[in-house]
Amino acid sequence: MEVIITKDYDQMSKVAADIIADQIKRRPNCVLGLATGGTPVGTYKELIRRHKEGKLDFSKVVTFNLDEYVGLPVTHDQSYHYFMHDNLFNHVNVAPQNVHVPPGMAPDIEAACAWYEQEIDKAGGIDLQLLGIGGDGHIAFNEPGSSLASRTRLKTLTEETIKDNARFFEKESDVPRFAVTMGVGTILEARKLLLIANGKKKAKVTAEFIEGPITSQITATALQLHPNAVVVLDEEAASELKQRDYYKWVYAQKPKVAEAVKA
Ligand code: GLP
Questions:
Q1: What is the value of pTM for the model shown?
Q2: Considering the domain 2-262 in this protein, what is its CATH number?
């Protein structure tokens, strides 16, 4: 796992946007996995900025979102469908038919989950999956106890997640109790993973998922199983990592490594 420690949220967002922009430039028709939450908002702003400057073309990009609340219509301002349009899709030239968000209102959720998996397959799999991390260590909505081989399915949210996400709703009782989420197994099939985290609140869980044992109690630890995972942090989120200085040293050596490989 590559760990990149940046000085603050803005830098974290820029580095994450660099990685995504690089993916789009290398393969303009790439398949991006996208995330919601407060963390990626700065990354999306940066991607929008680059698009508006004419430096980034989303016309052939295909997207799949990680998760969606069950029971919120797409017009609800806290649905992840709405969030993605508000924070990214409405501001770039992505083709509406290339956008996929798990259906949280499907009459047959199980069938809808199977359909979502098929759509990812049909698109050729995900090239780059952006991730955040929940306070309880979840990726997407893979709450503690989720199988590390799980596929897209319905999950019941933990009390901690409901409390964490209540800040986006008028009151805690408005937060949906269920969500449709890509599974950990689905996420691990992406060719590259990019997890971003910032702030002191994420420091403990960040140290646990990077340096602790792999466990379904902290589903982000599954990143340790992926051969091509990058984690971009700000100083605060990185503050409890034991090997913090080593990760910084490795990052600083990167240009030298590239030179050595070329020679
Ligand atoms: C939600 C989403 C996750 C996200 C997490 C963290 O639970 N399902 O995909 O990573 O929130 O959110 P934030 O970035 O706001 O801390």
A1: 0.97
A2: 3.40.50.1360
